[in-house]
C-alpha cells in the first residue's frame, strides 16, 4: 500500500502545529500516521504538546532536516517506510526548514519506495508577510515558492485590501499554488485537506478578491542554492517550575516587542503554571498573543526564537 506523505511547512508562528492538531482532533486522518517533527531550539514545545495524541512521533532535534540533520531525516523516513506500520507520514519542518530541500529528499525516496508526495503546504501568517519577506526571504520565500497549497493564517485580523495585496504578492512568486484565505476556524479539517488537494485555485473568504489584478512573473523559480544559514536565528529556552499569572505573561510579551532591548523576537511559545493549580499554553508572534487553558505538566517550558536575541535579558524576564 502506498504511503502518503504530507509536508506542513511554514515560518515561525504561522500555525503549522495548530493545523496538524486540528486535523488530528477532527479525525481527518483515520489511518495510522507518523509525524516527523523538527523543532528549532533545544526546548521541544510542539513535541510535548502533541504527546497527548495517540500518534507515532519522531522528533529530530539536533538541527535542521534540510541541512545539518538531512541524513538523520532521510534514515528516519526510510525506517518508517520499511516498517510498514504507517499509512501516512506527516512532516513538520522547523520554521526555517527550506521546503525545496525537503521536497527534493522525498522525491528522491519516491523513486524507489512505495510512497507518494501528497500535500505540500506552506502556512503563511498574512499579518507578518511584508516584514518577514523583507527580513527573512531566503526561508520564507522558499516555502511560498515551493508549496502547492498556501494556507494563509490570521486572515481574520486584516481587511480585504490588505489580504488582496498579500495574495497578489504571493501570486507573483507562485502562480500555481492553491491559496486559501478563509479563516481556518471557518473550515473543517476535511475541507482544508480537500482544498489543498485541488491544485491552482484560490479559495477566498470573499469573491471580490478575485477582482485584484494579478501579475505573474515567469522567472525561474528553482533556486538550486543549498547554501543557507540558519545561524541568523537563535533560540532561547528554559524549563521552569515558576508561576506566571496571565497578566504577567501579557506584560512580558508586550515588552518583548521592543527590539532595542530584546533583539528581533519572531516567535515564542510554551506552557506554564498561572497559579497554584492551573496551566496555560501560549503562542506569541509579534502581532498576536494567544493564551489558552491547558492540562498540567511536570514542568513549565518556554522558548523564544529570534534574530540577535539578548539572552541575558530574557533570563531576567522569565
Ligand atoms: Zn536547513
UniProtKB/TrEMBL annotation:
The keyword Cell division does not apply. This is GTP-binding protein. Pfam families: cobW, CobW_C. InterPro entries: CobW-likC_sf (IPR036627), CobW-like_C (IPR011629), CobW/HypB/UreG_nucleotide-bd (IPR003495), P-loop_NTPase (IPR027417), Zinc-reg_GTPase_activator (IPR051316). The keyword Chaperone applies. Residues 7-180 form the CobW/HypB/UreG nucleotide-binding domain. It catalyses: GTP + H2O = GDP + phosphate + H(+). Belongs to the SIMIBI class G3E GTPase family. ZNG1 subfamily. Coiled coil: none annotated. PANTHER family: COBW DOMAIN-CONTAINING PROTEIN, COBW-RELATED. It comes from Acetobacterium malicum. Residues 233-315 form the CobW C-terminal domain. Keywords: Chaperone, Hydrolase, Nucleotide-binding.
